[in-house]
């Protein structure tokens, strides 16, 4: 595991907690006629703003945000509804918005030069699509991704089930990190070539919902549904809930059989999500720590502090039932097309460790090709409705969270061994020198990005296109 060298800022700013997300107002517009889904309308304004990330005595931080909020305004709708979102760009550079994990039509996917023209400064673009699947998703730009996400552009998109789990509270934690100077300003060293070819831009300040409180209040006996979203440009989280027994009920928005995480640690690469049930089993006045232990320099993320109120219930709720599955078609593994995606490049990766650095300046590749936003020739072309298995082989010295747009996939094997749960994901974390086999039905037509979600790796060439025709 690679240790982190923290730039100079006092250590208090490493211990980051959360406040509630600011929610955008919903404006029901009725149906679109007949049995069409109800339409929910939102506006997202991407613009510079100032927010208090670290808190007093540090000054506010100049960020880029949606609707002047860090994270951006929470979008929360019901499964089956239709979204219409007006995006207004008040930034100094072009942008787009990608709806991560939602199986949108290709023209609504928010990938510049592939699915749409970038939204220029001063211009607007309206995204409109149905939300077929319940779950925890998020949104972020896909133009100059490392810098725009690194400066703050990201928000939660929550699609509620028609039959939600029985909990006392439904909480969203948007996790991310920042690289801040001592005056709490964002360090302007995006695209550092050494970092691009290593773990990416790891920050020195970790936040939950854009704030740094040391404690979050809970009630003894309550059950929480905690929706965890990793919106960091590069950081991987490995969260341990000390003195608690978390149950994972969904990954990347897709239901799983409720189960405790391996080694009592919830691991989330960039862009990955997990819905976790927490039964607050401590006594009034007690505390429970949430610790991030993924890297060698582990730290306390936040303290959960029990209030002085009496126990909410004498006996815990029954074990939760599985959330109803979403609508993904089941891949036909036996008759699927088979493909391989070899992840290459980066420092300390042996042969090809600096792939293309002397030519196009890229440090990463998929199948020996460094992808760019202006030249994205499809790696694979699939017939619509065809099942596909892709073996992702990581030949580098670094972790890679690999994301496929427009689809969810089953993880059917790791290192040649079948997985126990065959979980549905849209982003799979592939450790160094390991493989992950994914399977899906190519039922969503268009050209879809397939890339590493460590955004420096994506911008550095670890990106390609899968075409569904």
UniProtKB/TrEMBL annotation:
Residue intervals of the Plastocyanin-like domain:
60-162, 171-285, 359-468
Example GO CC term: the record gives: outer membrane-bounded periplasmic space
Q: Which InterPro entries match?
A: Cu-oxidase-like_N (IPR011707), Cu-oxidase_2nd (IPR001117), Cu-oxidase_C (IPR011706), Cu-oxidase_fam (IPR045087), Cu_oxidase_CS (IPR033138), Cu_oxidase_Cu_BS (IPR002355), Cupredoxin (IPR008972)
Oxidoreductase listed as a keyword: yes
Q: Which residues form a coiled coil?
A: none
Protein name, UniProt field: Copper oxidase
Organism per entry: Rhodopseudomonas palustris
Going by the UniProt record, its keywords in alphabetical order are:
Metal-binding, Oxidoreductase
Q: Which domain of life is it from?
A: Bacteria
On whether Ubl conjugation is a keyword of this UniProt record, the answer is no
Give the Gene Ontology MF terms in alphabetical order: copper ion binding; oxidoreductase activity
Q: Which PROSITE patterns match?
A: MULTICOPPER_OXIDASE1, MULTICOPPER_OXIDASE2
Q: What is the lineage of its organism?
A: Bacteria, Pseudomonadati, Pseudomonadota, Alphaproteobacteria, Hyphomicrobiales
């Amino acid at each position: 595991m690679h240790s982190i060298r923290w730039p100079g800022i006092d250590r208090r700013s490493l211990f980051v907690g959360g406040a509630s997300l600011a929610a955008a107002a919903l404006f029901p517009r009725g149906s679109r006629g007949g049995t069409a889904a109800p339409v929910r309308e939102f506006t997202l304004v991407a613009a510079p703003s100032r927010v208090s990330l670290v808190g007093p005595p540090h000054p506010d931080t100049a960020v880029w945000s949606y609707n002047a909020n860090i994270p951006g305004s929470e979008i929360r709708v019901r499964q089956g509804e239709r979204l219409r979102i007006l995006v207004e760009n008040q930034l100094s550079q072009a942008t787009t918005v990608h709806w991560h994990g939602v199986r949108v039509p290709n023209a609504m996917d928010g990938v510049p030069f592939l699915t749409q023209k970038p939204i220029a400064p001063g211009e607007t673009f309206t995204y409109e699509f149905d939300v077929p699947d319940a779950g925890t998703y998020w949104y972020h730009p896909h133009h100059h991704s490392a810098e725009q996400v690194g400066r703050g552009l990201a928000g939660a998109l929550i699609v509620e089930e028609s039959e939600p789990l029985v909990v006392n509270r439904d909480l969203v934690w948007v996790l991310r990190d920042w690289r801040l100077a001592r005056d709490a300003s964002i360090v302007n060293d995006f695209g550092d070539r050494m970092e691009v070819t290593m773990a990416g831009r790891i920050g020195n300040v970790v936040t939950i919902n854009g704030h740094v409180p040391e404690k979050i209040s809970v009630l003894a006996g309550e059950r929480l549904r905690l929706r965890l979203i990793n919106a960091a440009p590069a950081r991987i989280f490995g969260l341990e809930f000390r003195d608690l027994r978390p149950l994972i009920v969904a990954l990347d928005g897709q239901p799983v059989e409720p189960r405790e995480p391996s080694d009592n640690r919830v691991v989330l690469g960039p862009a990955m999500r997990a819905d976790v049930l927490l039964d607050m089993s401590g006594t009034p006045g007690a505390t429970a720590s949430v610790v991030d232990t993924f890297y060698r320099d582990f730290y306390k993320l936040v303290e959960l502090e029990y209030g002085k109120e009496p126990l909410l219930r004498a006996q815990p709720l029954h074990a939760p039932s599985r959330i109803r599955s979403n609508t993904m078609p089941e891949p036909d593994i036996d008759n699927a097309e088979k493909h391989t995606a070899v992840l290459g490049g980066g420092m300390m990766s042996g042969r090809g460790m600096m792939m293309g650095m002397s030519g196009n300046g890229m440090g990463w590749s998929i199948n020996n090709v460094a992808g760019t936003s202006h030249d994205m020739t499809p790696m694979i072309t699939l017939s619509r409705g065809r099942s596909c298995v892709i073996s992702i082989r990581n030949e580098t010295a670094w972790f890679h969270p690999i994301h496929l747009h427009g689809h969810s996939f089953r993880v059917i094997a790791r290192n040649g061994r079948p997985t126990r749960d065959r979980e549905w994901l849209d982003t799979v974390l592939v450790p160094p020198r390991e493989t992950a086999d994914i399977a899906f039905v190519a039922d969503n037509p268009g050209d879809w990005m397939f890339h590493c979600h460590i955004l420096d790796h994506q911008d550095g060439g670890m990106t390609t296109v899968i075409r569904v025709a």
